Amino acid sequence: MPQVSAGARIFALIMVATAAASLAVVSAHAQSVRPEVVASGLQNPWAVAFLPEGRFLVTERPGRMRVVEAGGQVGPPLANVPAVVARGQGGLLDVVTDSDFARNRTVYFCYSEAAASGPGNSTAMARAQLSADRTRLEDVKVIFVQKPKFDSHAHFGCRIAETKDGKLMLSLGDRYHRMADAQTLDNHHGKTVRVNKDGTVPADNPFAGKAGALPEIWSIGHRNSQGATVAPDGTYWTIEHGPQGGDEINRPQPGKNYGWPVITYGEQYGGGPIGDGIQAKNGLEQPVHYWVPSIAPSGMAFLTSDRYGEAMKGNLFVGSLKFGYLDRIELERPFGGKVVRESKLLAERGERIRDVRQGPDGLLYVLTDAANGQLLRLQPR
Question: What is the tally of structural domains in the chain?
Answer without folding.
Answer: 1
